[in-house]
Design goal:
With 112 residues, the protein is α/β, with parallel strands linked by helices. The chain has helices spanning 30-42, 60-75, 87-95; strands at residues 6-13, 16-25, 47-58, 79-85, 104-106. It has three helices and five strands. Helix 2 (60-75) links the parallel strand 3 and strand 4 (79-85). The model has no long low-confidence stretch (mean pLDDT 92). GO terms for molecular function: anti-sigma factor antagonist activity. This is Anti-sigma factor antagonist.
Length: 112
Amino acid sequence: MTKAFHLDVRHTGAGHALIAISGELDPVTAPLLRDQGMSLLAEGFPHLLLDMSGVDFCDSSGLSVVIALWNQAQAGGGSLALAAVPDRLSRLLRMTAMDTLIPVRHVGDSTA
């Protein structure tokens, strides 16, 4: 059984915010991440870091939201990066070549 979906938001500095995600990122929960990320971007936090360490599952709807947030951040002169990406999600990012556009720090990276 997977844990309930949860977003924990921390403002980490001027214009920077961290969103720690836990649970499944799927058609039901992906809109919650999209809304939270878009709100942060609109509120003056153009640099987002998504902590993916607690993500149990991510499908195409979750990936679509990550891409949409990356696009919106880029359009506003900001950035989006992923941290502590689990292996199963890393494979999805590689298969879609999104790891060539979005900065990704994998679980176990010494730079994470």
